[in-house]
Design a protein that fits this description.
The protein is an alpha+beta fold. The chain has 2 domains: 3-241, PmbA/TldD superfamily (PmbA/TldD fold); 248-492, no CATH class. Helix content is 20%, strand content 39%. It contains 9 helices and 24 strands. The chain has helices at residues 22-28, 88-105, 138-152, 222-241, 256-268, 273-277, 346-352, 385-390, 441-446; strands at residues 35-53, 56-74, 77-83, 122-126, 158-176, 181-199, 202-207, 212-214, 243-244, 248-254, 306-308, 331-335, 338-339, 360-361, 370-371, 376-378, 394-406, 412-424, 427-433, 435-440, 448-451, 458-467, 472-480, 483-492. Strands 1, 2, 3, 4, 5, 6, 7 and 8 form an 8-stranded mixed sheet that branches. Strands 10-17-18-20-24 form a 5-stranded mixed barrel. The protein binds zinc ion. Residues 264, 269, 465 line the site of zinc ion.
């Protein structure tokens, strides 16, 4: 649709959570005496997606959804039923359905739960931002993206230039009959840049890796976008002329925007307790980690410290409580190289008898909460990026993930990156195209030789962590520094 046909006044959709008093509805629900615990969770989300391509606006879309999930505990069994009809009678009907489901499922329950896994909690969370949605016109937002695509177009060889923004507003309220009352509101944004260059049969694409934060519209800054566009477009032209990445065992330095993917796939997902329990087998699927590994497994050297930390300001998956009202706090998952804690909710912790975190999260009002990553971070080490490169005699430096593959138990992986440089005698030298590497999860992390200090740490994340059936694509954050690994199987080619 051409932009001229759109009304360019930004629709400042005010989330009117107060229009429905779910506390009163919860009080008024007529329930059988067998209900041991009940809560309502109201979620209201608006997602705006804006894209510009090659100097023009391409698409502007807004999705809004709003509904209520009823969660009950009956005969030691939890069950859920949701509605987006926001009336008392619809919520009463959903509650009756949830009770029926719980009653029927309780005959086959895998574990007799009590309301101890739904601790009473009261509190609020509001992400911080400087420019609220509505403070910048839609025309100005799309003009910034168009400027980004124009800044990418520094050569006729750049055949496709794209800039996009995803803006997420989410409000949730959870109230239970035993006194929990939680409200959480986030404004989050992801900003993407991508340039594809072609010369004869050679085609290369370079992106900014889609940085994302809990922030306001200030994150879509025109000057910063144009500076990033300059770097990306120069690098994609370098890749057209670059040598193929060599093959062999060599030292590997990963930039934070590839450490992100490494942590996500080979630490985050394997530590999810529902995978270890066997509940969750989709999307590469189980885990090599065993319950007895907690407290013992040497995941990496003592310089490897990995935390679950929902308290980092502006990180993409920060929150005060998970979706069952468990208060979230920073915890070590891997401490001085040893696996100490899993990514599992109070339910999974009770079933598996291992320590976990507050991570039972749902993507929307019509999905039950499950064990999810949130912010999974590598704590910074003591090595500056310059010192890290200086330690390498013969190696490769790689930036920005472009492909990934991992087996069903997350033991083996292979990743491809967009951009690489050779490291020779402690210096970054030639640009290399089509860099890849592969490894086995535990040996790979044990080949970690240096962790970047706080000057190389970047707060990154993704809106697209997929899990569950039906699918739940959720926000995750990864604050990670550059890392050096020794004797890694590197190879070139492919995509
Ligand atoms: Zn994921």
């Amino acid at each position: 649709m051409p932009i001229k046909s759109l009304n360019l006044t930004l629709i400042d959709f005010v989330i009117n959570m107060s229009s429905m008093n779910i506390q009163q509805y919860l009080t008024d629900l007529v329930l059988p005496s067998e209900v041991e615990w009940i809560a309502l969770r109201e979620i209201h989300e608006t997602v705006r997606s804006l894209t510009a391509r090659n100097g023009r606006s391409e698409s502007i879309a807004t999705q809004m959804n709003h509904g209520v999930m009823v969660e009950v505990l009956v005969n030691g069994q939890f069950a859920y039923a949701a509605t987006n009809t926001l009336t008392f009678s619809a919520i009463q009907a959903a509650a009756e359905k949830a009770v029926l489901l719980a009653r029927q499922a309780s005959v086959y329950k895998i574990h007799p739960f009590t309301k101890s896994v739904r601790p009473k909690a009261v509190g609020r969370y509001q992400s911080s931002f400087h420019q609220a949605m509505g403070s910048v016109s839609l025309k100005d937002l799309i003009d910034t993206l168009i400027a980004g695509t124009n800044a990418l177009k520094i050569s006729d060889k750049i055949v496709n230039a794209v800039a996009n923004a995803l803006i997420f507003e989410r409000n949730s309220r959870m109230t239970s009959r035993d006194g929990s009352e939680i409200e959480q509101a986030t404004l989050a944004i992801a900003v993407g840049l991508s340039a594809t260059a072609q010369d004869g049969l050679e085609t290369q694409t370079r992106t900014n890796g889609l940085p994302c934060l809990q922030a306001g519209l200030e994150f879509l800054d025109r000057d910063k976008m144009c500076q990033e566009a300059q770097r990306i477009s120069e690098q994609v032209l370098e890749l057209l002329q670059a040598e193929e990445c060599p093959s062999g065992l060599m030292d590997l330095v990963l930039a934070p925007d590839q450490v992100l993917m490494q942590v996500h796939e080979s630490i985050g997902h394997p530590l999810e307790l529902d995978r270890i329990l066997g509940d969750e087998k989709n999307y590469a699927g189980w885990s090599f980690v065993q319950p007895a590994d907690f407290g013992k497994l040497v995941y990496g050297p003592s310089i490897l410290n990995v935390t679950f930390d929902p308290s980092v300001p502006s990180e993409f998956a920060s929150y005060a409580f998970d979706d069952i009202g468990h208060k979230a706090r920073r915890e070590y998952l891997i401490q001085e190289g040893v696996l100490v804690r899993g990514l599992g909710s109070l339910e999974s912790q009770e079933r598996l008898k291992v320590p976990g975190v507050a991570n039972m999260r749902s993507t929307s009002w019509n999905r039950p909460p499950i064990d999810r990553m949130a912010n999974i971070n590598i704590e910074p080490g003591s090595t500056s990026f310059k010192e890290m490169i200086g330690q390498v005699e013969n190696g490769i430096y790689m930036e920005t993930n472009r492909s990934w593959s991992i087996d069903d138990y997350r033991r083996k992986f292979q990743f491809g990156c967009e951009y690489a440089r050779r490291i020779q005698n402690g210096q970054l030298t030639t640009v290399l195209k089509n860099p890849n590497y592969r490894g086995l999860t535990i040996p790979f992390w044990n080949q970690l030789r240096a962790v970047g200090d706080s000057s190389s740490l970047k707060i990154l994340g993704s809106p697209y962590c997929g899990k569950g059936e039906p699918n739940q694509a959720i926000h995750v954050g990864h604050a990670v520094p550059a890392c050096l690994f020794e004797k890694i199987d590197v190879f070139g080619g492919g995509a």
